[in-house]
Each structure stands twice: as C-alpha cells, then as structure tokens.
Amino acid sequence: MFRIRIFLFFAPFLFLNCSDNNAPEPEDDVLPVESPRLSDEELLDITQRQTFKYFWEFAHPASGLIRERGRLSKGPTGVVTIGGTGFGLMTILVAIERGFISREEGLDRLLNMVIFLDEKANKYHGAFSHWLDGETGETIPFSPNDDGGDLVETAFLVQGLLTVRQYFDGNNEAEEKIRDLINKLWNNVEWDWYTQGGREGLFWHWSPNLGWEKNHRISGWNEALIVYVLAAASQHHGIQASVYHNGWARSGAMVNGKTFYGHPLPLGKDLGGPLFFAHYSFLGLDPRNLTDKYANYWEQNVNHSLINRQYCIDNPKGYSGYHSQSWGLTASYSTKGYSAHSPTNDLGVITPTAALSSFPYTPDESLEVLRWMYELQGNVLWKNYGFIDAFSKTDNWYADGYLAIDQGPIIIMIENYRSGLLWKLFMSCPEIQQGLTKLGFTY
Question: How many beta carbons lie within 10 A of that of residue 135, not counting itself?
C-alpha cells in the first residue's frame, strides 16, 4: 500500500482547504506578470528565484527550518517540516549557484539549521519526527498515533544534508564544521532499528509512547525508494540487501509492466499514481542511468509523467481547464482538504508542482505548462512565493497558499534539468555509491 502523503486521513489537515471560491476566472489573452515575453532561461530563472523566497524569507526565524505551509490570508505558524527542510537545504544550494544569495549567506543559514537539528531537535534512534516546533525543536505530533520518528521524512532530510556536505568542500573552519555536523546526524540514524529487530522491511514510524503500533511497512512503489538507498548506504546502521528486495520490492510484486496511453509502466499501480512518486526520491538520486532488476528508473519516471499528462489531456471526467498546457496530478491542497491527486483520484485539481517538477522528464511539455501558467494565468496563480499550490477551473477555486513539499521540488528539479547540480552532488557521495552497488543497482 502506498502512502497517500498520510495527510489525507488525518484531522490536522481538515482545516487546510484554503478555499477562495470568489477568485476571478482568469482571462487567457493577457500577460499579467511580465512583458515583453521572457526567454526560456529567463522564465526558469524567475520561477526558481520567486519560489525560493518561500525557503529563504518564510523559514522559521529561530531555527531556519522550513515551515510546513504558508497561506496568503494568514500569518506564519511555528510548525516546521523535516521533509520540507530537507528540500529547503537543497534549494539554498541552487540559490547560491544561481546568484540569488552569496555562498557566505547560504553557509551561514545552513549552519544555523544544522546546529539546531543537532542540538535541539528531538530524535528517535537518530530519526526525526515529521513536524517540529521551529523554536524549541520539540516534536509536534503529526496525528494522535504519530508522535515519534518518521523514517521517510528523515530520509528526505538526510538526502538534503548529504548534498550540502558534498557542496561545501572547502578547508575553512565553517565548511569543515558543517561537514562534521552532517556526518554526525547522518551516522546516528539507526536505519536498522526501523526493521523492528530484523524483519524484512523498513517501518515508517516508531514512538517511545506507542512503539511500533502504526506498523506501517515501507514498501514499493511510491515516493520512498530513497529510504532504502540511504539505509543500505549507512556505514554504522546499514541494512542487508534482502530487506530491500523482500521489503521494498516485495519480492518483485511492485512490478507493473502494463502499457498506458502507449507508455510502458515498469513499476507501481495502474496509471502510475501521484507524480510526487517521480520527484521526492529523485531530488538527489539521479535516475538517468539508474537500473536494477526491477526497472530502468529513467523510463519509469518519464513514462509516469507522460501517462499523467495524457490522462489529463484525455480528461475522462470532463473537467474544465485540463489540456496540453494545464496538466499534472499530485498531492496538494484540494477543493476537499488535502488529497493525493492522481488518475485514480481525480478531483479536477491541477497542481503546478506536478508538471514543473517533471522538467527533467518532460522538458518541452513542462515548459508549455510553465508559460501558460505564468503568461496567461499569472494574475491568479503567481504570488509572492511563486505559483500557488493548486487550482480547479471546474470549481473556480484557487488555493490560498503553499506547501513546502510542493514548492521545493519545483526549484530542485528545474535545476536538475538545467545543470544536474543536485544529482551530481548526491551521487558523488561514496556511501551512496556503495549502497546502490549493495542493492544491485547500476548507475
């Protein structure tokens, strides 16, 4: 069973509808944001720069960690997200490389974040909780039964930490310090603990209050491949390859092999599921030449993206606003709270991160979406932190805010499309190379 970003079922998100049913229907014949027309490179630059403001200006002022969500109509909260913070770490590297901030500014912010994670943040056998108080580091329960370690969110954080470690390779005191702190955090995650004492598979949650009560095995195909790669790569708390093959891959049961809209889908459920499956694990993990006995992961992600796009063009439910310049179903705010949108859970909601974070896989098709949203829909979609989280033309609904886990992949995957920066950094980790080899990958 794949995770539906868990939010779907939990009461904490019931108030996050972010409805604005009075938003005007945009006109398709205006250029509300910029004139004259930007070049492709200028458009990518401004998208990354504007979206980065969420991670720089809206970060928690005490810790620098990334707030879970931001709303246009309300002030900030103290809730920070560990997964979103992992994405935020990577966006800072992009910002340095693109000249949005200086290397010194980025390093100073990153050091503050890493020190906070080391000294204040609650940990559970080295793993972090899904939510923290950005001031104190205390766990904020994600649900009544989720008040301890979250191994998937921890993996997203560690993916970001390792890219930062590889980027800051200087011999000065500050860069040496951040590398040392990152190694400490990374080495202290007890991935093997999360096998429940040697079972064949990693388990999502553990709590000192509830133990293994949730008992949620992390099994594929979904967004969590990175968890097993990191667990195999760990030098101090590593797992055996059989945990990957029998737990994650379910002894081959995650293989699909069917064809949809003319595109073979190697893994997962029919029609591919929400598009964040092709994004979160692959912010650092480079899929371009990644294969194992189950799949070619480039083919998996490209075809998943194309299936998702073609489904929207085909539009079997007849929603307004679905076409070749407006596609992309993934987890986001929705007209019904929070939902993991997909071809099998289609509520008429388009989420900008879906197509924009697919830039490496569908560059021409994603650029079409970017131009349409920016040039023709910018008056309702483009705000202070980039594109709003989601919209529905059918319901004339436009989300009143942002989610960190949606904004981050936009910056990161556009950069991977443009330069491969985060892929190069993460894949340069010797531990990752050893872990991939251990699991039978070629890369």
Answer: 15
